[in-house]
């Protein structure tokens, strides 16, 4: 339970943005760039992922500013489901999305996520539709998104046995600024040398199809989930994922670019050269992740700018009203 004094403050004033501290993951394919470039002070080596805005029990974020400092974001939203907004009121304090930073120093496993129906029935949590926004990519970097042609379970079983799965996958060159929508059921894998921001449903269900026969720090091969994967995979040829022009709207002092819009979330890139303003209505919370530069954030509840830098992430409660960003910075802005 949160302190009664905090609840009273919230009742009397518009909610303020919450700066978040992420949970970290040390998966074997990770690197060090989230520490060296995104200011993540997490004592893990490697640091593969940071769960920037999360209430998932496998890695909840912690609030590190304002009235709720020191409390888990899951705890805050359970006490104040109105912070989520009217569109997600039925979720009773459960944040429907999860925002990550991912540093793929090595190839990730070839994997698939189930849809909501299968995941809720079998795994008792949400399915996982996601998108990637590429923050950086080494020369020649690639990723997998879908199959190169239609396949069958037998074709996949034979290819995995013979070490020839790669020939059936749709390999896509990747560059900084690219974005990829990955609906549940899509076979996928990030390749080595790619750093992304991932926006997804709040879920931690992954079925590994192939993992290059790698072993973990204890010398054991990581578990594969072939039988479950075969039940959820879309085995048709993958969708055309070539980059298409995106709509950019220019304003004095900033530009705004729609990155992705689906049934689970909307993502927009803000490039600020002087200032940028937007309104957080009572329909949905919003999340800000600083990709480059630094700046200040003011809202109707906070009249002295909250300073932020590359890697910082804010949860902005629904109903916060007008928000104003100053500085020279680039951010992702996500809402439901």
Task: Describe the protein's architecture and organization.
- With 336 residues, this protein is mainly β.
- It contains six helices and 21 strands.
- The strands form four sheets. Strands 1, 4, 14, 15, 16, 17, 18, 19, 20 and 21 form a ten-stranded antiparallel beta sheet that branches. A six-stranded antiparallel beta sheet has the order 2-3-5-12-7-10, with no helix packed on it. Strands 9-8-11 form a three-stranded antiparallel beta sheet, with no helix packed on it.
- About 2% of the residues have low confidence.
Give the gist of this structure.
By secondary structure, the chain is mainly β. The protein has 6 helices and 21 strands.
Low-confidence stretches: 5-10
Fraction in helix? 10-25%
What's the gyration radius in Å? 20 Å
Gross geometry? globular
Our measurement of the CA-to-CA distance between the termini, rounded to an integer number of angstroms, reads 26 Å
Number of helices: 6
Category by helix and strand content: mainly beta
Report the portion of residues in β strands: 35-45%
**SSE order, as H and E?**
HEEHEEHEEHEEHEEEEEHEEEEEEEE
Give the number of DSSP strands.
21
Mean pLDDT: 94
Q: How would you sum up the major sheet?
A: 10 strands, antiparallel
């Amino acid at each position: 339970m949160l302190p009664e004094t905090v609840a009273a403050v919230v009742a009397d004033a518009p909610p303020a943005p919450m700066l978040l501290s992420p949970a970290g993951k040390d998966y074997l394919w990770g690197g060090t760039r989230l520490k060296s470039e995104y200011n993540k002070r997490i004592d893990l080596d490697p640091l593969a992922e940071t769960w920037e805005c999360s209430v998932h029990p496998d890695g909840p974020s912690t609030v590190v500013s304002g009235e709720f400092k020191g409390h888990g974001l899951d705890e805050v939203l359970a006490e104040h489901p109105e912070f989520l907004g009217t569109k997600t009121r039925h979720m009773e304090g459960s944040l429907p999305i999860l925002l990550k930073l991912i540093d793929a120093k090595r190839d990730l496993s070839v994997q698939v996520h189930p849809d909501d129906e299968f995941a809720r029935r079998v795994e008792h949590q949400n399915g996982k539709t996601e998108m990637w926004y590429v923050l950086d990519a080494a020369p020649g970097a690639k990723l997998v998104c879908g199959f190169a042609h239609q396949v069958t379970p037998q074709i996949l079983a034979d290819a995995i046995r013979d070490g020839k799965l790669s020939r059936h996958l749709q390999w896509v060159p990747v560059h900084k600024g690219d974005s990829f929508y990955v609906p549940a059921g899509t076979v996928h894998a990030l390749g080595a040398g790619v750093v992304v921001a991932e926006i997804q449903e709040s879920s931690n269900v992954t079925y590994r199809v192939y993992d290059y026969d790698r072993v973990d720090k204890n010398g054991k091969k990581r578990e594969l989930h072939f039988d479950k994967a075969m039940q959820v995979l879309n085995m048709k040829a993958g969708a055309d994922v070539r980059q298409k022009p995106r709509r950019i709207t220019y304003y004095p002092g900033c530009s705004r670019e729609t990155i992705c819009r689906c049934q689970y979330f909307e993502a927009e890139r803000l490039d600020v050269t002087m200032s940028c303003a937007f309104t957080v209505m009572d329909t949905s919370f919003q999340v800000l992740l600083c990709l480059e530069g630094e700046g200040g954030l003011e809202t109707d509840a906070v009249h002295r700018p909250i300073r932020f830098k590359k890697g910082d992430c804010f949860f902005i409660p629904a109903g916060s009203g007008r928000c104003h960003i100053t500085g020279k910075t680039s951010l992702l802005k996500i809402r439901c």
